[in-house]
Automatic annotation (TrEMBL):
<feature type="region of interest" description="Disordered">
    <location>
        <begin position="586"/>
        <end position="643"/>
    </location>
</feature>
<feature type="compositionally biased region" description="Low complexity">
    <location>
        <begin position="607"/>
        <end position="623"/>
    </location>
</feature>
<protein>
    <submittedName>
        <fullName>Uncharacterized protein</fullName>
    </submittedName>
</protein>
<dbReference type="InterPro" id="IPR036465">
    <property type="entry name" value="vWFA_dom_sf"/>
</dbReference>
<feature type="region of interest" description="Disordered">
    <location>
        <begin position="382"/>
        <end position="410"/>
    </location>
</feature>
<feature type="compositionally biased region" description="Pro residues">
    <location>
        <begin position="594"/>
        <end position="606"/>
    </location>
</feature>
<dbReference type="Pfam" id="PF13519">
    <property type="entry name" value="VWA_2"/>
</dbReference>
<dbReference type="InterPro" id="IPR002035">
    <property type="entry name" value="VWF_A"/>
</dbReference>
<feature type="transmembrane region" description="Helical">
    <location>
        <begin position="642"/>
        <end position="664"/>
    </location>
</feature>
<keyword id="KW-0732">Signal</keyword>
<keyword id="KW-1133">Transmembrane helix</keyword>
<keyword id="KW-0472">Membrane</keyword>
<keyword id="KW-0812">Transmembrane</keyword>
<feature type="signal peptide">
    <location>
        <begin position="1"/>
        <end position="26"/>
    </location>
</feature>
């Protein structure tokens, strides 16, 4: 059996307990949205054609659907709609182009009833995809987390264009996600189904045969339980500090817009409820790939005292040089004073003692104005009463050392389905795994790394025996990125310059032609926040927190769209070593530290700079022509540091439960 931790109901957004556990970011008082799924199956006449396995496409599809039912979430409402199953006419008549039926209502998962419904129809008529999708959107209603999974073996045979129809559905404010599966399709159908998925905020999968279709549908069924939204209490930042809304511990959603007319700014106020606590404010926003992905407005985040003393700042560019999307993420903080500091400076003391802080978000001037839905998380961590006597932080951090590391892979890999965001990352124990990814996809997993422990995360590469890889040209490079994020969501790859493991066919064999992509999490210590240099281009000191570390596995797109939609098995492995030690003793307080820790404090061990993260800003390059796109820092650091490069990951980053507002991934 896979050694997996089940996703459980979240605990309240309170504190880091004395044992050092990191509670969930979610608020258990919020009711989760009901998951509603409509399976839409092509029953047009072409589905009577043979599948490579020897049965008809329809029989193969029915078998795959029945097999996937067990992967659907038990608490989901599930229905089945078919098209082309009843009208056999001369072709494209009004009756044929309206031939779609809901053969099983959307109701609590009934595997036996769905199985009977799946077996009940034959392949007869046309392919009215647009009509079926419009009807499916109506079936789903206006409430809950709504998901359509479409399986088709051909392109639309009626009007309107289904891609346009889906866009009209989305533009009308009907929030849903559409994933599509092309079953033995040609180029035109593949392009159309890809367009439908992109318009519907989903993913296109290509299934050449019954086996691949079964695997794909099982994967999609599992992912229907995962949130494709960012959630939180709606808030609107103010253009001036005076009108700024108050953000207490919790999750919020807002928009951050760039402008062609100059800088845009929003302000928020953050209260401190316990003297000496650490305040962390994190913002995450996803900017999808775009034809013109350059100069979309850089990001700047700043946390300061009400009188303007800067406690922390971060910045990130928004340039998408690889047209794979950008994750803009930054965490700023006001940390407790280091009790070992003999003479803490005035700025550090002011930031540690301020009853309220000002959070400032700026977007730079852009060539094209872009509005991005963002999630803001406010976290408060009680001071550690024994911070002075805790073990010293690590003196150095791993950097570009993958050729000195060994993958912990061992034995047969366990098949797993990753999450689409930090929030829904699948919890797994250390071990060896395989996950299926289509080019351009990134999935996330999480593993607990406790105080005093270290971790290794290795990308072990595509399965070289996977048949579709044998058709790759020797000049095709298959990039497989693996990234590590701390419990505060800051990227902390120990491989700064290596953006992905690079594979290609050499003499008929798939070989790794770059250094191995192996990342190391150094020993996790509380005092890493003061004593240690930052990781990943001096961006992250998140390894000063015990908790869930996030491991992202991605697959880059190939030239000319090769392998588009084809799920490729990617192997990876995780090891956690060391005994639990150096657990901090947190001071008692009415309000304890919150959920997902966000720690990006000073990397300098000098006592006068323990919390003055940005006393002096390094020079930041202009956005034009620069490949640095994410997570860069303007903190007080020695000059000349390189800038972090975007990993090409296209993620929907979210959090469950803390509010009543949801922004769908499609936006």
């Amino acid at each position: 059996m896979p050694r997996l931790r089940h996703l459980t109901a979240a605990t309240p957004a309170l504190a880091i307990a004395a044992a050092g556990a990191l509670p969930s970011v979610a608020d258990e008082t919020a009711l989760p949205e009901q998951t509603k799924v409509v399976l839409v199956l092509d029953a047009s006449a072409s589905m009577n054609e043979p599948d490579p396995s020897g049965v008809t496409k329809l029989e193969a599809a029915k078998t795959a659907l029945i097999g996937a039912l067990g992967s659907l979430p038990e608490d989901a409402d599930v229905g089945l709609r078919v098209y082309g199953a009843t009208v056999d006419g001369p072709g494209r008549t009004p009756a044929e182009c309206a031939d779609s039926q809901l053969v099983h209502p959307i109701e609590p998962l009934d595997e036996q009833g769905l199985t009977t419904a799946i077996r009940s129809f034959n392949a007869v008529g046309e392919t009215p995809i647009a009509f079926a999708l419009q009807e499916a959107a109506t079936d789903l209603g206006t409430e809950g987390k709504r998901h359509i999974i479409l399986v088709s073996d051909g392109e639309e045979r009626c009007v309107p264009d289904p891609c346009v129809a889906v866009q009209d559905i989305i533009d009308a404010g009907i929030g849903l996600q559409i994933d599509t599966v092309g079953f033995g399709v040609g180029g035109v159908a593949r392009e159309q189904l890809t367009c439908i998925a992109e318009a519907g905020g989903g993913t296109y999968y290509d299934a050449a045969d019954a086996g691949t279709l079964t695997t794909t549908l099982s994967t999609l069924s599992t992912r229907t339980a995962r949130p494709f939204t960012i959630q939180g209490t709606p808030v609107e930042g103010s253009p001036t500090p005076e009108g700024a809304p108050l953000l207490e511990v919790g999750q919020y959603v807002d928009v951050a817009a760039s402008s062609t007319q100059g800088m845009t700014t929003k302000y928020y106020r953050v209260p401190r409820t316990q003297p000496g606590s650490t305040i962390r404010v994190s913002m995450v926003g996803r900017m999808p790939a775009a034809p013109d992905g350059m100069n979309r407005g850089r990001w700047d985040w700043r946390l300061s005292t009400p009188d303007g003393l800067e406690c922390s700042s971060r910045w990130a560019l928004a340039s998408d040089t690889q047209r794979q999307g950008v994750i803009a993420a930054g965490t700023v903080m006001a940390v407790q004073l280091d009790p070992r500091a003999q003479q803490p400076d005035a700025r550090a003391q002011a930031c540690a003692e301020a009853d309220e802080l000002v959070y400032e978000v700026k977007r730079g001037n852009a060539r094209t104005a872009v509005t991005t839905d963002v999630e803001i998380r406010v976290m408060e961590e009680a001071p550690a009463a024994d911070a002075e006597s805790l073990p010293d932080g690590v003196a150095s951090v791993p950097r570009d050392n993958s050729d000195q590391l060994t993958s912990p892979a061992s034995g047969a890999p366990v098949s797993v389905v990753g999450g689409a965001s930090f929030n829904d990352a699948l919890a797994i124990e250390p071990g060896t795994y395989v996950t299926d990814l289509v080019p351009g996809e990134v999935v996330l997993f999480k593993t607990r790394v406790d105080w005093g422990q270290e971790a290794i995360f290795a990308i072990d590469g595509p399965d070289p025996a996977f048949a579709p890889l044998q058709g790759l040209h020797s000049l095709d490079w298959l990039n497989v990125p693996g990234n590590v994020y701390a419990p505060d969501f800051s990227q902390m790859d120990s491989q700064e310059l290596l953006r992905a493991g690079m594979y290609r066919m050499v003499n008929g064999r798939l070989e790794l032609t770059s250094r191995p992509d192996i990342n190391q999490v150094p020993q996790v210590n509380f005092r890493n926040r003061w004593d240690s240099p930052r990781m990943y281009f001096r961006n992250s000191n998140g390894f000063s927190m015990a908790g869930d570390y996030y491991f992202a596995v991605g697959l880059g797109e190939l030239r000319d769209g090769e392998l588009r939609g084809v799920p490729v098995p990617i192997r990876f492995s995780i090891a956690v070593t060391g005994d639990v030690q150096g657990v901090p003793e947190y001071a008692e307080a009415d309000v304890e530290p919150s959920p997902s820790p966000a720690a990006e404090p000073t990397p300098n061990p000098e006592p006068t700079q323990e919390t003055t993260e940005s006393a002096t800003a390094t020079e930041t390059p202009s956005e034009a022509g620069d490949d640095a796109t994410e997570g860069s820092t303007t903190d007080a650091e020695p000059s000349g540091s390189a800038l972090p490069l975007v990993g090409g990951a296209l993620l929907a980053v979210g959090a469950v439960g803390a509010g009543v507002y949801a922004v769908l991934r499609r936006r």
